[in-house]
Amino acid sequence: MGGSGNLPIGPGVWGFLALFVLAIALWLLVRNMNSRLRRMAYREHERVEAERAADDAKTKQGLDSTDETDEGPESTEKG
Asked: Which of 9, 18, 21, 62 is at a distance of 20 to 30 A from 77, taking alpha carbons?
């Protein structure tokens, strides 16, 4: 055969640079995804708290209005 056994076989510098660029892109994508998920969870938590407060206010308002008109079960059980 040719006689020269020292042929460079491997990805070389360009392979390393391609892998490095892909690793940096992956890191940036994961970082962006984490910040978006954290923001989405925070907004969801705020939405749930607002709904809970609104439901509590409606329930309290509903109980206040029924307390004024309803005399309770004691008034119906006379005898």
From this structure: 62
Q: What gap in Å lies between CA 61 and CA 57, rounded to an integer? A: 6
pTM of the model: 0.51
Residue entry with tokens 């892109």: 25
What are the structural domain ranges in the chain? 25-58
Q: What does the alpha-carbon distance between residue 4 and residue 2 come to, in Å, rounded to a whole number?
A: 6
Fill in the amino acid letter for 30. Answer: V
At residue 55, what is the residue type?
A: D
Three-state secondary structure call for residue 52: helix
Q: How far is CA 26 from CA 12, 31, 36, 41, in A?
A: 21, 9, 15, 22
Q: What is the DSSP string of 37-72?
A: HHHHHHHHHHHHHHHHHHHHHHHHHHHHHHHHH---
